[in-house]
Amino acid sequence: MRALALSLFVSALWISTTVAQDSAVAKPYESDDAYQIYSLLLPQEESYSFAKSTLIIQEETASNAAVEGACLSSEMAIRFKGAISDYRRSQTMKWHLQRQFQIEKPYEIVGKETIALLLKGGWDGYSDQYPQSGGYIFVSAVGFNKNKTLAIVYTGSICGGLCGWAQFHLLEKVQGHWREVPAATCVTVS
Length: 190
Description:
Blueprint: H1 2-24, E1 27-28, H2 32-41, H3 46-50, E2 55-58, H4 74-79, H5 81-90, E3 95-96, E4 107-110, H6 112-120, H7 123-129, E5 136-139, E6 143-144, E7 150-160, E8 163-174, E9 177-180, E10 187-189
Parallel strand pairs: 1-3, 2-4
Antiparallel strand pairs: 5-7, 6-7, 7-8, 8-9, 8-10
């Protein structure tokens, strides 16, 4: 009986460990609407305008941007409540971006470990590997309301030294096309 109890305990421990490991594994980010939004917003990023060659996009979605720091007006917070809720839920998952961006510049999707390794030696190491890239861009997963007519996303770029920019964007789908909603949100600049 004791052996059976020990066997069940070990089995339960193995299952919970396996489930925990699987939830930490990044999944491919597959959302046509999200890539339409990214394709609309990326040309606004500093690194995009600075890039003279291949644009670098961080593969893993940014997951540390708390929407509480978005500085939304109470009106916008109410209007985008469903999208904000979905944004928060999406931040609990790890996502890998796919080659689905529809932008004019050539781009490469690079893992954040690679970026971190290159930056460990300073910005020169990164610039040697990706010359004239203008730095790199990062994006969060997109939060959508239930009908996928409203969205919130966090985007930013790092362009070396104290050069960088990040902010939340609010969007709405009008006649099948995403457009940014003019709203005041907090911007992080360095």
